[in-house]
Write a structure and sequence with these properties.
The structure is a single chain. The chain is of the alpha/beta class. The chain is built from 5 helices and 4 strands, in the order αβαβαβαβα. It has a 4-stranded parallel beta sheet with strand order 3-2-1-4, with helices on both faces. Strand 1, helix 2 and strand 2 form a beta-alpha-beta unit. Helix 1 crosses helix 2. The longest helix has 20 residues. The protein is globular and about 45 Å long.
Length: 138
């Protein structure tokens, strides 16, 4: 873990960073790594989307808000409406990334960081194809 933190330090040094955190393992580990690597904690902006699809959704949002308050981190959250059209995953992804960009602009963020675990490979590939990325990144 220290090796990852040491590699992260020069990447985020003097940068304002938005960390998307769902309270899942992948994004919580990302937030922990950024928190430990950052010299200036006030440069960390935590953004959470409450999908409202599980009983634990509000509890997770409250936990993350409390964590940020205790650690003097800027925190933004948004609760998605219960109504949507089409594919929920696609709809929610669009809403998430739109919110991340809104907050990034508002806070003058230099880096947006999201975490993905092994099951997210398909999402990553699809997003890169949409952005017309090369196959080198896959």
């Amino acid at each position: 873990m220290d090796n990852i933190i040491n590699k992260l330090i020069p990447f985020i040094q003097d940068k304002k960073i938005l960390v998307a955190c769902s309270t899942g393992v992948d994004s919580t580990v990302l937030l922990d790594l950024v928190f430990k690597a950052s010299k200036n904690k006030t440069q960390i902006v935590v953004v959470h989307i409450n999908h409202g699809r599980r009983k634990a959704s509000d509890i997770e949002e409250a936990y993350l808000k409390d964590f940020c308050q205790k650690n003097n981190l800027t925190f933004y959250s948004k609760k998605l409406p219960k109504t949507y059209t089409g594919n929920f995953q696609e709809w929610a992804r669009k809403k998430r990334y739109k919110f991340f960009l809104e907050i990034a602009k508002l806070e003058c963020v230099d880096i947006i960081m999201t975490a993905h675990h092994g099951d997210d490979n398909l999402e990553t590939i699809l997003m890169r194809i949409i952005k017309i990325s090369s196959f080198k990144g896959y």
